[in-house]
Amino acid sequence: MPSRHDPVCPHTPRMLHGGDYNPDQWVATPEVWEDDARLMAEANCNTVSLGIFAWVALEPREGQFDFSWMDRVFEILEKNRTVVNLATPGGAKPAWMAQRYPETLRVDRFRRRQLWGGRHNHCFTSPVFRDKCRIINTELAERYGSYPYFGVWHVNNEYSGECHCDLCQAAFRDWLKQRYDHDLEKLNHAWWSRFWSHTITDWDHIESPSPIGEMGVHGLTIDWHRFCTHQTIECFNAESAPLRELTPNLPVTTNFMTAYSGIDYAAISRGLDVICWDSYPSYHDRDGDADLAMNISFIHEQRRAMLNKPFLLMECSPSVQNYKPFCKLKRPGVHILEGLQAVAHGADSVLYFQWRKGRGGFEKFHGAVVDHFPTTETRVFQEVKKLGEILGKLDGVVGTMPDVEVGLIYDYENYWAIDTMSGPRNVDKHYIETCYEHYRPFWNAGVPVDVIDTALPFDKYKLLIAPMLYMVKPGVAEKLEAYVRGGGTLVTTYMTGLVNETDLCFQNGFPGPLRELCGVWAEETDVPYDDEAVRVEPVAGNALGLSEPYEAGGYCDLLHCDTAEALATYAGEFYRGMPALTVNRVGAGTVYYVGSRNDRAFQSAFFSRLIGDLGLQRTLGDVALPPRVTATWRGDGEKTFVFVLSFNRDDTTLDLGDRSYVDVLTREPIGGKVTLPGYGHLILESA
Ligand code: GLA
Ligand code: ZN
User: Fold this and answer.
1) Domain of 682, in residue numbers
2) What's the CA-to-centroid distance between 171 and ligand 2, angstroms?
3) Residue 370 counted as domain residue
4) Is there a domain that residue 604 lies in?
């Protein structure tokens, strides 16, 4: 059973509610700050994230600081015991820096130095940038580190992107020298660079990937992504060094985006004290709310699994965004549902971008708790207030975790490799979508899943799913084999085990180092169009009891069984009769190899069977969850909190049968048939 983690803020062992706060935009009208404090109390908000883009307000000229406004803001916030996540301002640099130190400006892939403007665009190598961060971060830590309701250090903002300047090129070459032991032979072998005469004979020949230069050496591209991750971590470390030194007891974090895969978040996560992320789904678009909600749940599950502890929802919009093609209003109830969904999966906060709309600038129409007409009578304000009230009843949930029996591998380096690869299909390769599709049956059944990368431990799971594990890095095959031999069940798919960590193909028949474990040889992979259905039929009397035919499209491996047994075979195409789904028994465990990209009917039948066979715990036991309703839970070994979330527009009936719970919000007992209103939720407690 899970145990309870310490709250992120020991002084405020409650759900944190509030968000990005930009009083620096209102320095000329400080009465607004007083008003904010009043409104925050009224909206049941207890937390702000302060100063994220306030560099120029804090340091209007190089070396000249003005903390007077921030001092005043802290005074006001302290009166309400408001938790402050204090940001370091590296997310947007002031003009004076760009003017005096142009090297802090990014250079793009075409080798063009960018002009000053925008944000999230510093050179992550520049010693000047890092030093300027160190100076201002030191000032902030010295001045505000002892604030009694300090939350977390919010370092920079949404790290992303890359820089191709000379400093970065030199750093890249140094990084490569380390990686390849100063041995160009090793590097050339890793990149297979005899191809097209790309052999490197001098370290200075190496340039980062560019559309006007090299894009076809996949080992180089993957290494470049690794370097960008490394350099982001170095920059983060430089920015956090003064915080770690001056305020060693305060947690340090940086905010992640949704499914951003440009840098390896898993690698970055290992240097954070708590994970936090920014979630901006566009509900009510044509894809359907439940599909989107399922994708968001997937990311939440990943963020919780990263450090195996509760995380923070650092940003979400209380109403709309301002940058999507259509910025639709969230329907009544959806905001509360979205916030509770985060909590259900392990968040100990619901924080917004943004507290108040600024009068001008790019985000003046982005949703906020406080609108341009700053009344409490808006629908959005009222819904935020209501969510605050609900969160106020969830103190007991803070620090709790679920027991998770299923692991699903989503690996960033594997993503880069698939993304970079040329063939067998070069559009819509569907890596993350395939991971989502392997998560869907669990979301539908109310079974929590850890979304992990290959560096995290596997042994705690009863079921491990590794979709499209194209790249098998050193040690991973051995780890998977140990997991299976020890009694684990592994599911893997087509496009698995093709290349090593630098994109060199395995030479023993795919799935390469996993061939013995899977007991199959994937001789070729056909790529019918996604909607070009290839029929697959279960083998009569197959061990899984699969009885219905299903359809494959997108990827179809042409498989041969070595030691595995076929559970289903293709019934169409020239590979009719070849295995499409196999099982192999290894040691005390079992490996399923899914040779084709299959329809939802298969996903549902196959994984329902595994959930049953492996006895995986469903949040509501055998209670049947209606379509578009999910359930998940958190607990501390004594108490269990169940969250039932409906992404249906209309009322849905749920039969809790004879399971009896207490409704956390009303403290009334609840059981039997219950009606979930459209976009409704239930929070249940069982002792
Ligand atoms: C990101 C940023 C915020 C804001 C929001 C708008 O998450 O971190 O500063 O721009 O997007 O949705
Ligand atoms: Zn640079």
Assistant:
1) 629-686
2) 9
3) no
4) yes
The per-residue pLDDT for range 245-304, each reduced to its tens digit, is 999 999 999 999 999 999 999 999 999 999 999 999 999 987 789 999 999 999 999 999
The bridge status of strand 489-493 relative to strand 255-256 is: unpaired
Q: What integer pLDDT is reported at residue 2 of this predicted model? A: 79
Nearest ligand 1 atom to alpha carbon 317 = 12
Q: Which residues of 238-276 are buried (b: 16+ CB within 10 A; e: fewer)?
A: bbbebbeeebeebbbbbbbbebbbbbbbbbbbeebebbb
Q: Within this chain, do residues 559 and 467 fall inside the same structural domain, yes or no? A: yes
Q: Please give the tally of structural domains in the chain.
A: 2
Out of 260, 279, 353, mutate this one to test ligand 1's pocket (max ligand atoms within 8 Å of CB): namely 353
Residue having the nearest C-alpha atom to atom 3 of ligand 1 = 353
Enzyme catalytic residues: 158, 315
Ligand closest to 101 (CA) is 2
Q: Pick the residue whose CA is nearest to atom 12 on ligand 1.
A: 321
The CA R_g of the chain, rounded to the nearest whole Å, is 26
Query: Whose alpha carbon is nearest atom 9 of ligand 1?
Result: 353
Q: What is the pLDDT of residue 659?
A: 84
pLDDT of residue 564: 98
Judgement on whether residues 644 and 527 belong to the same structural domain of the protein: no
The SS3 assignment for 552 reads strand
Contact 19, 315 (CB under 8 A): yes
User: Among residues 613, 648, 668, which one ends one of the domains?
Assistant: 613
Q: Which residues of the chain carry a pLDDT beneath 70?
A: 687
Residue 413 sits in the same domain as residue 498: yes
User: How far apart are alpha carbons 423 and 211 in whole angstroms?
Assistant: 19
Query: How much is the pLDDT for 3?
Result: 81
Select from 221, 231, 268, 257 the least CA-distant residue to 419. 221
Domain shared by 558 and 438, yes or no: yes
pLDDT at 288 (0 to 100): 84
